[in-house]
Predict the structure.
Amino acid sequence: MDEGGSLENCSPGNGTVGSNPTPSAKLNQKGEYAMNVSTKFTYNDYLLMPDEKRYELLDGEFYMVPSPNEAHQRVSGNLGFLLRQHVRESGLGFVYDAPFDVVLSVEDVVQPDILYISKERANIVTENNVSGSPDLVVEVISSSSAKRDREIKSKIYSKYGVKEYWIVNPIVSNIEVRSLKDGLFETVSTYDKGDILTSQVIPDLKINLREVF
C-alpha cells in the first residue's frame, strides 16, 4: 500500500495481480484502512499482500493492522507469558502470538494478539497457519482498533465458534471476558487490575492482573 492508501493492481477474488481497476483504500476516523470494493477479497488475495505491512481480512475486506505501541507490547507480552506458562506446565495445549494467520474462512483471516488451542484440537495447527477456530482468542485494543475488535471481530469469532474471547484494554487496565453461548458471545466478567482472572476453557487458570498491567 502506498502513502496515498491505494492497493495497486489487485483483482479481488481470483488471487492474481494484473492491470485490473484498483480498489481504493481510505483511512477512516478510527485510523483503519479498509478497501472500498464491490467484490470481496479472498484468502488467495490475502497471500499476495506485501510483507512490509500486516493485514487482516474481515468479511472479504482488508484492514491494515498498525504497529503496536509500548503499552500494547508490554501488556500482551506479560499476558502471553503467564498464559503460556500455565498451559505448558499443565500440558493443556498451545499458545501463539501475533503475527500468526488464523484462517476462519476464505473471506476471514485474522491475526489475534494471543490465541490458545487445546491439545485435543491440535490438528487445526499447520505449518503456515491455524485452519479453524482457536479455543480462546485475545485482542489487545487501542483507540484505533476498539470498534473493530469489540464489534466486527467479535461477530466473526462467535460466528465460527471461538469458545472464549478476551478483550484487553491497556488504557483502563481491565480484561473483558466473553463466552460463547448458543452461538453468541455474552460477557461473563470484566476483570480489573488486581483481580484474579479465570477461564472457562483453560482449566485451573488463575492470573493476577497486577502481573499483566
